[in-house]
Amino acid sequence: METHSFFIDLLIILIAARIFAELAVRMYAPSVIGELFAGIVLGPSLFGWITISETIRLMAEIGIILLLFEVGLETNIKSLIHSRGKSVVIALCGFFFPFILGFIVSYNIFSLSLLTSLFVGGTITATSIGITVRVLTDLNLEQSRIGQIVLGAAVIDDVLGVMLLALLYEFSIGGGINLLNVGKVFLFVSAFFVLAPVVARLISLLINRFDSISEIPGLIPTSIISLVLFFAWLAHVMGAPELLGGFAAGLALSRRFFIPFGIALHADEGFADRIESQMKPIIQLFTPIFFVFVGLSLALRDIDWSSPTVWLFTLFLFSVAFVGKMLGSTFIRENRFSRYMVGLSMVPRGEVGLIFAELGREGGIFSNEIYASLVLVIALTTILPPLLMKWLNSRESIIN
Amino acid sequence: METHSFFIDLLIILIAARIFAELAVRMYAPSVIGELFAGIVLGPSLFGWITISETIRLMAEIGIILLLFEVGLETNIKSLIHSRGKSVVIALCGFFFPFILGFIVSYNIFSLSLLTSLFVGGTITATSIGITVRVLTDLNLEQSRIGQIVLGAAVIDDVLGVMLLALLYEFSIGGGINLLNVGKVFLFVSAFFVLAPVVARLISLLINRFDSISEIPGLIPTSIISLVLFFAWLAHVMGAPELLGGFAAGLALSRRFFIPFGIALHADEGFADRIESQMKPIIQLFTPIFFVFVGLSLALRDIDWSSPTVWLFTLFLFSVAFVGKMLGSTFIRENRFSRYMVGLSMVPRGEVGLIFAELGREGGIFSNEIYASLVLVIALTTILPPLLMKWLNSRESIIN
């Protein structure tokens, strides 16, 4: 790719993201919706001005891990651990219900093959942690009890999603279901989540120490980005999604970092401030690229809008994708408003669903019609909940 | 490219750049030398751990235009214009002497073909503005009179280099020399330099205005990066090197921006401060990638160290590449120290020379031996002057 055409692509993405986000906010929608629409407008769905290049994709990936890093940075581990019971309930329900309901719709109602039905279930299972987190941030709810429950649930959901993907992939290439492998992944991921924040914290203390003796400016941006990249890579190696590495690194650098023997690991306040003020511009630069990227990935033009099967399948699937994620929230003891908000937060599927759908299409598991339906379901689950949440949030007092 | 292997590559580049830069500074060398060595060590010259991917290359390109943007931001246009006479002398001499001497060495002494000789001359002609600027910054000289002369000269040199490249390229594909085209490029580039800062200034005032009414954080990083990308793209379209677009955008946003009717274009001081503090971390993140990239591009292992021709040709060529750039400084009225510093500043060839050499090799114009010599000459001109300048700078009082 020529340098100048990459520059113009990146420029268009950044400006469109900003303009659509400003418009969205003025129309009382969360800004992330604007960024997604920017991608839909620029991409194959509408004008087709931008095709996703590898560099744009990789910069988007940096964007999402940095967003999770920022969320981790502002997370209070104590309250995250405190809400773990509810998070687990939300995550497990939000994982199994859509998967099973999606499977039933495909296998029993639309008589699709076993493998296809399993993949349809998988596609509508995983929550997009990025979209969830961004919407909560847009509504200033990321530090609320709702935010902590959803965050914990989304992390668990993401891990379950990756394990399901690995299982289904092995099944699709005829390897059968290997529960030993799944157990191994689960162990690794658990180990990662226990150890990563401690290791990251130790490294950050090293950076803090180095910061005072370094003779060249710019230590914080390069070393913190390196730290985040390292944990993203480590997460991948341990079998977890990369963005969880960013989250773990953020947790470790959080001011409210808390581990049983954590007293010795305290960095000074000034250091945390410097990290925040210097990382913010970098995070603000990269994250919009991710959401535009998700919008670009939706090829809504490919959908055969005249096919009744597409409409019917979409309708059924969307219903179970929506209800399946909402069900879990009825099992936790919170007021009505919080339950709705938690439920809605888990609905967006975004890029995770698209990865599943893409895999299914490339592997010949999904026909064009089914793929189109899935893209439509993903688009609806991604776009509607943020709007509903914003609306609900402005009516909190009426609902309770 | 897989996401996690990109992450690990970027991570290694960032960390190696930092470690080698810190070592360099402790060994009294400029930090840029450390970053270049990081690239040499990681790349095909030594361990071959990192191969340049498109994404790394494009991020390096962002790095260099951002560096030029930063330099522009800190440049005082008045003193740049003030030293234009000396800059022109330095640029023209530094352009013609190496070109002609390089041609003579190749054509008359080593009896190479006409086309090859012309390309050898071209390869050792263009100064690497990035390395020059970085060394001056490392020595805190970028705002000095020396800095202003060199900066002006390097910009002119870069424009001349691109015009020469265009000319030689046409000549090499049998198109003959088209002076009309060269004149057109010259006109376009001049127009760009007169108009770009004014336009960029107007846009920045728009951003400033928008900054106060925007409801979403992060306007400055995305909009300033967009501005820089836009002018880099525009520079390319007008036939100038992309990095000069970054420089023009920086000039326009400079606190010391000055144009005849400039009074109406003043933005508030606070805005300039916000731009500087928010752009710094982004610039510090991207620029080391560029210098490591230059080091990675040097394939020193490919050189046949046992060939006497390589050694002899390298020796001759390095001498004329060095002396050719130094000659111009004898024509300007400055003290001995300043003349040496200005001359040495213009010696580094870096990535510009490598682009020429690569083009020559791909086009079959350079044999392996000649290519190897050129890479060696470029490496020497890139690495020696920064060391000499640092040493000279510490002895300023003795020399004068």
Can you tell me about this structure?
The structure is a homodimer. The first copy, chain A, has about 400 residues and is mainly alpha-helical. Chain A has a single domain, classed as Up-down Bundle (Na+/H+ antiporter like fold), CATH 1.20.1530.20. Chain A has 17 helices and no strands. The relative contact order of chain A is 0.17. The model of chain A has no long low-confidence stretch (mean pLDDT about 85). At the A-B interface, α1, α3, α10 and α12 of A face α1, α3, α10 and α12 of B.
Map the helices and strands.
The structure is a homodimer of 400-residue chains.
Chain A (H helix, E strand, L loop, with lengths): L2 H24 L4 H12 L11 H20 L3 H6 L1 H26 L4 H10 L5 H10 L6 H28 L6 H35 L5 H19 L4 H12 L15 H29 L10 H20 L8 H10 L4 H13 L5 H26 L2 H4 L1
Brief overview, please?
The structure is a homodimer of 400-residue chains. Chain A is mainly alpha-helical and 400 residues long.
